[in-house]
From TrEMBL, chain A:
<dbReference type="GO" id="GO:0005524">
    <property type="term" value="F:ATP binding"/>
</dbReference>
<dbReference type="InterPro" id="IPR050086">
    <property type="entry name" value="MetN_ABC_transporter-like"/>
</dbReference>
<keyword id="KW-0547">Nucleotide-binding</keyword>
<dbReference type="GO" id="GO:0016887">
    <property type="term" value="F:ATP hydrolysis activity"/>
</dbReference>
<keyword id="KW-0067">ATP-binding</keyword>
<dbReference type="Pfam" id="PF00005">
    <property type="entry name" value="ABC_tran"/>
</dbReference>
<dbReference type="InterPro" id="IPR003593">
    <property type="entry name" value="AAA+_ATPase"/>
</dbReference>
<dbReference type="InterPro" id="IPR030679">
    <property type="entry name" value="ABC_ATPase_HisP-typ"/>
</dbReference>
<dbReference type="InterPro" id="IPR017871">
    <property type="entry name" value="ABC_transporter-like_CS"/>
</dbReference>
Automatic annotation (TrEMBL), chain B:
<feature type="transmembrane region" description="Helical">
    <location>
        <begin position="190"/>
        <end position="211"/>
    </location>
</feature>
<dbReference type="GO" id="GO:0043190">
    <property type="term" value="C:ATP-binding cassette (ABC) transporter complex"/>
</dbReference>
<dbReference type="Pfam" id="PF00528">
    <property type="entry name" value="BPD_transp_1"/>
</dbReference>
<keyword id="KW-0029">Amino-acid transport</keyword>
<dbReference type="InterPro" id="IPR043429">
    <property type="entry name" value="ArtM/GltK/GlnP/TcyL/YhdX-like"/>
</dbReference>
<keyword id="KW-1003">Cell membrane</keyword>
<protein>
    <submittedName>
        <fullName>Polar amino acid transport system permease protein</fullName>
    </submittedName>
</protein>
<keyword id="KW-1133">Transmembrane helix</keyword>
<feature type="domain" description="ABC transmembrane type-1">
    <location>
        <begin position="19"/>
        <end position="208"/>
    </location>
</feature>
């Protein structure tokens, strides 16, 4: 569904992503892991063109999107994104946060969008919060709203950029549970995460990045039990 | 000390009529300045030089020269150059609106830059087009933060509006001056005008606080 070929990104002289070639299949859950500064987030942000790649190709279905003047809006409508720091719209209620893009971008009718939003909020367990403002929510609740907001666009794939890293420990589970449920519905997901148990349990494939290179990609079992590279071994020794 | 208000009592309605004249041109100027200032601010935050430079030059000129000079230029120089006899009201609104836009654009620019960049990314990731993002996500948040600064600008503009008396606009100030000249008593009419200005600003300040409270609902 999403394919990258020799994807590279430089910030000035700093090369943060080096020739990443991979393919994300429909329905696949990919966990992107690696030390900080390894380019995980940059890789993720390139997929929906929040970062413009310096070179290489990104294919979404049958369209090359990184180098063409393709409409970024079209791609982003189809790929949802969840951020580490939620980035909910603070001046809108929870319901408005979730209905805003469907109404503005997909031109859904307001009551139609609200119905979808309510279903999604029920799914993430926040029915009673629909008229609250984000500032009244806990971190875990905010992140669940952010997931609902992204899902409201009915995307084909979801990108998660360290969705639990900014949360208090006791709130990590409620967000991961929502993501597990989502994975079970067959959603295509790319998750940058430090939650190794989540990666082990939910992901179909692990991408291990180090210093901007895709060092290893494998099934979780294989990767966690028999990492091939020394870098991966060292990393796993530290985090497990 | 020989204060005597009895003499100016018959002239009070004449002075009060100036309130309407002042309010009319101040409100049009504020609106004009706000709209133009927002457009200028949006030009300044782009990385397109063709938009950024004119906006910067505009601000530099209108902030860098006295308002009264701009007023005089518009009112007396335009007819000289073009032969078009510009109405006093139009001159006043142009001068104050154009001048205010320069200040407002800087306030709004600062407000936009202070909004978390994550908001832009969140909107982009949802596929929200730039105009909609600015209008319903970035500007409302910016506005909340800059409201006190904007109110300051509006208050300044309301008070400085007295400058239009120099081109003969029959505002509060001008009327107070006329009454003063007629009666050879300046203190009483000026005092009345001063009190009215103060009351207008007082009301404006309260409207500002009210709006601010409304916008802080989401906190």
């Amino acid at each position: 569904m999403i394919k990258t070929i020799d994807l590279s990104k430089e910030f000035g002289n700093n090369s943060v992503l080096k020739n990443i070639t991979t393919t994300i299949q429909p329905g696949e859950v990919v966990a992107v892991i690696g030390p900080s500064g390894s380019g995980k987030s940059t890789f993720l942000r390139c997929l929906n063109l929040l970062e413009q790649p310096s070179s290489g190709e990104i294919w979404f279905h049958d369209n090359e999107v990184a180098n063409s003047n393709a409409n970024k809006t079209e791609i982003r409508k189809n790929i949802g994104m969840v951020f580490q720091h939620f980035h909910l719209f603070p001046h809108m209620t929870v319901l408005e946060n979730v209905t805003y893009a469907p109404v503005k971008v997909k031109k859904l009718k307001k009551d139609e969008a609200e119905q979808i939003a309510k279903e999604l909020l029920a799914k993430v367990g926040l029915t009673d919060k629909e008229s609250s403002y984000p500032n009244r929510l806990s971190g875990g609740q905010k992140q669940r709203v952010a997931i609902a907001r992204a899902l409201a666009m009915d995307p084909e794939a979801m990108l998660f950029d360290e969705p639990t890293s900014a949360l208090d420990p006791e709130m990590v589970k409620e967000v991961l549970d929502v993501m597990k449920d989502l994975a079970q519905t067959g959603m295509t997901m790319v998750v940058v995460t430090h939650e190794m148990n989540f990666a082990k349990e939910v992901a179909d494939r692990i991408m291990f990045l180090d210093e901007g290179r895709l060092m290893e990609e494998d099934k979780p079992q294989t990767f966690f039990n028999q990492p091939k590279t020394t870098r991966a071994k060292e990393f796993l020794d530290k985090v497990l | 000390m020989n204060l005597d208000f009895s003499q100016i009592v018959p002239s009070i309605p004449f002075i009060l009529e100036g309130i309407g004249a002042t309010l009319k041109f101040v409100s049009v100027s504020i609106l004009f300045g706000l709209v133009l200032g927002t457009i200028l601010a949006l030009c300044k935050i782009t990385n397109k030089k063709i938009l950024k430079w004119p906006a910067d030059i505009y601000t530099s000129i209108f902030r860098g020269t006295p308002l009264i000079l701009q007023l005089m230029l518009i009112h007396y120089a335009i007819p000289q150059l073009t032969g078009y006899d510009i109405a006093i009201f139009l001159s006043a609104v142009l001068a104050f609106g154009l001048n205010s836009a320069a200040y407002v654009s800087e306030i709004i620019r600062a407000g936009i830059l202070a909004v978390d960049q994550g908001q832009v990314e969140a909107a982009e990731a949802l596929g929200v087009p730039y105009p909609a993002m600015m209008l319903s996500i970035i500007l409302p948040q910016a506005l909340k933060n800059i409201l006190p600064a904007l109110m300051n600008e509006f208050i300044t503009l309301t008070k400085e509006s007295a400058l239009v008396s120099t081109i003969g606009y029959m505002d509060l100030m001008r009327r107070a001056e006329i009454v003063g000249a007629q009666l050879y008593r300046n203190f009483e009419p000026l005092l009345i005008a001063g009190i009215i200005y103060w009351i207008m600003i007082f009301i404006l300040t309260n409207i500002g606080s009210f709006v601010e409270r409304r916008m802080r609902q989401s906190d």
